[in-house]
Fold:
Amino acid sequence: MKRILIMLLILGCTVMVMAEGERESNELTIYTPAPPEQVNLVVPLFEKKYGAVVYVVEGGTGELFNRIKAEAANVQADVMFTGGIDSGGSFRDYLADYVSIEEGKLFDPAKTHPWYNAVYLHPMGIIYNTNLVKEGEVKGWMDLTDPKWEGKVLMPDPRKSGSAFGELFIHLNAFGRDNGKGWEYFKNLYKNLIVTTSSSHTYKFVASGEFPLGMTHERNAYKYRDGGSPVGFIYPEEGTAVRPDGIYLIKNGPNPELAKKFIDFVLSKEVMELLRDTGYRVNRVDVTPPAGYPPIEVIKQNDYDPVWAAENRAMMLNKYTEIAESN
Structure:
């Protein structure tokens, strides 16, 4: 009898040790392409609230998603904090589904795409210099094909810029991605383009007056406008896309429960208001956009399918290269 009791005691201690080992730590590793002001705003607040220790690895969106893929057999991170969903769509196999507890308060709910929860909403459009373009002279994408704008419209190279790849996809959606009309439009547009090597060139060169027109998302235009530059922003009459930046739960990460808490924390009203105050349109119905931004409901939107874009990325970039090399 004594021998049985000793064995039971040993077994009980073993189970307790195993359970202790299975408990998650308070450490979280985040990969992020977000600017430092956002990381330095969110991470310390989360650490304080949950008694957590957060390790941050910064890099470009594509670089970090490729790192997640390379580490799939030995996952090192828990969360990818921001990053365009058209980039994320190429890496769905390495992302876990999660619908935040904040779901009911989001413009773009995750229940139809649980592989990401949207953080920011970026309507794409046309930035223009008010000294070089009259108000109402350009109303949409088609106006940019007018021969008078030859060599005067800036667009980043979609082979190098995630936002420019999104712009290319938006053009195809606006005019017909499956019937050839989208590519017909883009061939005409390309005749007027000056292709830049960096997304930032688009809004910087328009704000400085070196070029009259460019393509970017609204925040870049309003940031320069609010800083006193002579710029305006056009939401194209043919429609555009409100291109999200997401937050992603990495599949088989070392601390999934704390990772989910981080996602919920980022999407909370308190944190989203703080992020809004850095000049971003955030994905919550109860948080107003930054001052001077129109309500999202008045922006004409077209469908935006990041999975289709990811699956057809090679085809789109090959077609783009054909057009670029023929001009």
The CA atoms of residues 148 and 192 lie 9 Å apart. Residues 123-242+301-325 form a domain with the D-Maltodextrin-Binding Protein; domain 2 fold (CATH 3.40.190.10). The mean pLDDT is 90.
